[in-house]
Design goal:
four-stranded parallel beta sheet, 18% strand, CBS-domain, binds pyridoxal-5'-phosphate, single chain
Length: 457
Amino acid sequence: MKIFNNILDTVGNTPIVKLNAVVPKGKHSFYAKVEYFNPGQSVKDRIAKYIVEQAEHRGEIKPGGTIIEATSGNTGLGLAIAATIKGYKTIFVMPDKISEEKRAILRAYGAKVIITPTAVEPEDPRSYYSVAKKLVEITPNCFYANQYHNPDNGTAHYLATGPEIWEQMDGKIDVFVAGGGTGGTITGASKFLKEKKKDIKTICVDPIGSILEDLFRHGKALTPAHTYKIEGVGEDFLPSVYDFKMIDDFIKVDDKSAYVMCRDLVAKEGLCVGSSSAMAVVGAIRYSEKLDKPSNIVVVLPDHGRAYMSKAFNDTWMQDNGFLPSPLNARTVGNLIEARKKKVDLVVAKVDNTVIETVNLLKTKGVSQVPVFSDHNLMGIIDESDILLPLAQGKIKPNDPIIHLIKGNIIWVNWDESLQKTSEHLQQGFVALVKDQKANLHIVTKIDLLEYMSQNL
Ligand SMILES: Cc1ncc(COP(=O)(O)O)c(C=O)c1O
């Protein structure tokens, strides 16, 4: 019988698949180690299983204990699977930029999930590393998996990922490419591969915004870390799991190239993978351009694309971030106002107008909403429905002042702001106000945008 004892035993032995359509034809061959074949659909199942086994072996985790981890999602899932099979509880701390799908699956496994802000320094008490550390201090009988500083992370890849690649490629590998997060994959697998063949080149792919490449080349960050959209890779500090001696070069990749490649991988190779996988493929292709000799290049694809349905595989998200072309990106608010058929003088109400005066204003000017000013200060906006409902419910009387009905959902936009950006504001329920070069005020509502799109796109 070829039966696994439990789901945890299926971790590892993922296939290597040749890339055919997204890579340049001819000189080099590109092979993808597809880690979504793991039971939690990511490479992190490997380290989760090994870290827990080693902790048990050393007596660092006791029956009924709680596993705590700071995770961008995948390690959490790997740990949740291990914890389920072995009877532990789990608490995970995740940065807020991580997709909702990744949080939901952890909760499905019964984990407690704590969300922390992304845009804070690692030392900040609100950072996900700090919150995880604090939890470890206060939770009895807990074990901190600590993937960033736990040497077992790299060892898991040294013992399994590296040997698998070596065997699957029959030793015919020249370049090993992986994204760097905690550094476990790149450090551990590279160590094994270099022991087998010392001139294998190991290339770490790093998102723009991460400081890892700077640390590798200069020992310090020349450009401060900033946020980026690729998930699971790149850091704003150096995890001690890294051994830079195992890395020969770094390649930087921007968000847009990675997310566009996500779409290409699914459409042309049938590989539905996450943004860090796509980033690694872009990095592998760029690195290959530097190579004279025909080479066999193996690139690690860390996880499945299912966790990115609301991002990489959502057209609106892709367009909003400028990763997919959108006709609205090329047009500005100014274009819309200049294209308006009839020149509209902005109708405004004053803050001390009564309800009936405002209704008359809406009626006589044929508009459905008006900005409300107090002298020259914009107080907000009022539309028909803001008046209709409270009037019908008897909550206001026709001679009451309108001040209490004003809504604040107005946003000032620039004349040359892209209509894509403006459409995001409008979809969030805002009404846009803009001043032209002569300081005349204009209002842009959803219906204005619809009218513009139907006539001009
Ligand atoms: C989606 C994804 N890709 C890549 C990585 C990077 O792998 P490593 O941490 O082994 O460097 C991670 C790590 O969290 C990840 O979650």
